[in-house]
Design a protein that fits this description.
This protein is 19% helix and 29% strand. By secondary structure, the protein is α+β, with helices and mostly antiparallel strands. The protein folds into two domains: 270 residues; 127 residues, Elongation Factor Tu (Ef-tu), domain 3. The strands form seven sheets. It has a six-stranded antiparallel barrel. Helix 1 packs across helix 3.
């Protein structure tokens, strides 16, 4: 009996497809995929919550007597991972059997793989841009010196970050650094993963720098410059612990002026703290202002008041000081600087700790009635389904990926520029 080459086509395809898919990833390999591993299944819904780590306050005494001090409260908090749009590629192919006989898997899978990787990485970069709260450099200023990159790592170290810091640099920024680059190639292997090809150096100034063409651009709204808070938000840990976002009311804008997602807001009167020691950060003799990033587009009302939500929690909690992010609460009438120039397009680089963001993929069920397979490889779950049109005899292959993104700590990530 002749071999039936159409049997289990989807499983055969995925065994070839998945390793190449993982090899092509760059940005996705730099965020945490372990904390969300196993949290999602088809019954989880659109969101799933992951427990945030607890923090405690260190108390110093001369004699060890703690009777006059309060213990650190244990407060449960969670970060929420949200399912993103499904990424699918649908291929119609009239000669799948011929391709199989000729062992031409790459001819079919490579374009689909490239398309899915590109879309996944661009979606993740856009998510990271809006959820990265820190600012390094001056928005709109090109990165043209290695000291600009080192400043990102210095900022993260001063914050108390102990995990690996990555910097995803726009290709034009890498060109600006070309005169100072050393040792771009690592090893003599002729075949390298996309991550190996993207690395600029092994480690520079406590940063792992690499180039990414998936970084997201955003256009500033029509508002810029100095405005003010129109009300005092609640900034206790218990109020912000599950989102690490804060809703703000800001006035001083013109009616109908806009602030767009990805725009960064600076609060010059409120300064950042080291997240371990709770000591104020100081750079060149001055404190480092708290910043946050606008999550969604907003428009000012007729009175010039605008409601925005920013990623980045300005936590100041006298009862639970071990969670404080800043040295004082932001309050009504505080100055707020809208960073950047109105109506200007920016494409910032990103810097972040590996555990600032989380990524996982939902294990999809097989589609009934078709040759459908699900394959997991290095933490990623992919589905392939073969079908056919009985009228035309044309065969088709559908490839699916359902990602979920999470922000664990927006103040371990930021938008990077030059000085």
């Amino acid at each position: 009996m002749a071999n039936n080459l159409n049997s289990n086509v989807s499983a055969k395809l995925l065994r070839k497809f998945a390793p190449g898919f993982m090899s092509d990833l760059v940005l996705c390999k730099t965020v945490d995929s372990n904390l969300l591993a196993g949290e999602y299944d088809v019954a989880s819904g659109d969101q799933v919550s992951v427990k945030r780590p607890h923090q405690y306050q260190a108390i110093e005494t001369s004699d060890g007597d703690l009777s006059g001090d309060l213990p650190s409260n244990i407060i449960s908090a969670q970060a929420t991972a949200t399912v993103q749009p499904m990424i699918s590629v649908w291929i119609k192919w009239s000669q799948i059997e011929e391709a199989l006989k000729s062992d031409q898997w790459d001819k079919i899978t490579n374009p689909a793989r490239d398309t899915m990787v590109t879309r996944l990485e661009k979606n993740l970069a856009a998510y990271m841009l809006k959820n990265a709260a820190l600012t390094s450099g001056t928005i709109g200023t090109a990165i043209d010196a290695w000291s600009d990159v080192a400043s990102m790592g210095t900022y993260m170290s001063d914050l108390g970050c102990t995990s690996q810091v990555c910097a995803a640099l726009d290709p034009w920024s890498v060109q600006g650094l070309a005169d100072a680059q050393k040792g771009i190639a690592s090893g003599d292997a002729l075949v390298k993963s996309a991550w190996e090809r993207a690395q600029i150096s092994g480690n520079f100034g406590n940063v792992m720098p690499y180039t990414s063409n998936a970084l997201s651009a955003h256009t500033m709204g029509t508002a810029s410059g100095a405005v003010a808070l129109a009300a005092s938000p609640t900034v206790t840990y218990t109020a912000l612990k599950d989102t690490y976002n804060v809703a703000l009311s800001i006035d001083g804008l013109g009616a109908g002026e806009t602030i767009t997602a990805g725009t960064q807001l600076e609060f010059p009167a409120t300064l950042m703290l080291n997240q371990q020691s709770k000591e104020q950060l100081v750079k060149n003799g001055a404190g480092i202002p708290f910043t946050g990033t606008v999550l969604a587009d907003a428009t000012a009302d007729g009175a010039g008041v605008i409601a925005v939500t920013i990623s980045g929690a300005p936590i100041f909690d006298a009862t639970n000081p071990q969670y404080n992010v800043v040295n004082r609460a932001i309050v009504d009438n505080d100055v707020v600087n809208i960073l950047g120039t109105a109506s200007t397009v920016y494409k910032p680089s990103l810097f972040y700790a590996k555990d600032a963001f989380g990524l996982t993929t939902v294990k999809l069920p097989k589609l009934n009635g078709w040759d459908s397979s699900v394959f997991s490889h290095e933490g990623f779950s992919l589905r392939a389904t073969q079908s056919s049109d009985p009228t035309t005899g044309v065969q088709a292959m559908r490839l699916d990926l359902l990602p979920a993104f999470c922000t664990f700590q927006p103040h371990l990530a930021g938008q990077g520029a030059g000085y």
